Amino acid sequence: MYWSAVFKRVPTNAQVSSVRVFGSILAAGSIAPGRHTILECCLFNHSIPGSLAGVLTQVLDECGVDRIVDIGSGSGGPMQLVLKEMAKLGPLPHVTLTDLYPAPAGSSLDYWPEPVCASNVPPELRGVRTLFTCFHHFNPPVARAVLGNAFAQRQPICIFEATSRTTLAIAASFAIPFLVLFLTPRVRPLSASQIALTYLIPIMPLLALWDGFVSQLRTYSIAELQALTRDYNAPDYVWKCDLIKGSGVPFSTSYLLGLPR
């Protein structure tokens, strides 16, 4: 069951404000790497990249391209997890990471040095565009602009989420603090401030819960994703939308593909 009534609509600034607070605390404690790793472990489950690798490999084959332009990459964590799974399926494509606020430090992949807006990608960045676990941050007008830019440039686009606005997924959000407590010792590098803000003053688990919970409520349903593409129809460009389920994940997550013909 999708919570359509709730979705109309969780304010964008509700989550953005929490993320800004989260970022400030992390910056003060010098634990930025920990935030990304913990949220990936909680929301981008280890079984999901394997499922997405198959979809992405098929898109590359269908479109006849060997390049990926990852949008909203951050430090590149999700893309690297998917690439690890894609390596089991065949030769890896060339990947360029991009972000509105580039953070190339620590990434082993090529990172575009200039800021890249998801709704206005430079035309020289050609290849399959990927957005992992970030599309729910865009309100409908921005989301349509992101899709419209790919459509106008006739570039493939793959949007993957690790969240879902279903009863089961929302209920599962409440397990996030316990996952943070369990997974934090595995984070490397692990600082004293991470330990303090996780176990002594449990700010990290609570903020991860809030971020995950609101992300579930903001995730687009299949019908809403299809509605976002309604203005971008052409014989040489098609849209595909479906659900995918990783093993061990109690709910399915959505993906949207835009494919030039």
Summarize it.
By secondary structure, the chain is of the alpha/beta class. The chain has helices at residues 4-7, 12-29, 32-43, 48-63, 77-86, 140-152, 167-172, 176-183, 192-200, 203-218, 222-228; strands at 67-71, 94-97, 110-111, 128-132, 157-160, 237-244, 253-260.
Explain what this protein looks like in three dimensions.
It contains eleven helices and seven strands. It is of the alpha/beta class and 261 residues long. The chain has a single domain, classed as Rossmann fold, CATH 3.40.50. The protein has a seven-stranded mixed beta sheet with strand order 3-2-1-4-5-7-6, with helices on both faces. The longest helix has 18 residues, at 12-29. The model is unreliable at 1-9 and 13-40 (pLDDT under 50).
- From the N-terminal CA to the C-terminal CA, the straight-line distance is 34 Å
Uncertain stretches: 1-9, 13-40
Helix content: 40-55%
DSSP helical segment count: 11
Strand-residue proportion = 5-15%
How do the helices and strands line up, and which of them pair or pack?
Layout: H1 4-7, H2 12-29, H3 32-43, H4 48-63, E1 67-71, H5 77-86, E2 94-97, E3 110-111, E4 128-132, H6 140-152, E5 157-160, H7 167-172, H8 176-183, H9 192-200, H10 203-218, H11 222-228, E6 237-244, E7 253-260
Parallel strand pairs: 1-2, 1-4, 2-3, 4-5
Antiparallel strand pairs: 5-7, 6-7
Helix pairs in contact: 2-10, 3-8, 4-5, 8-10
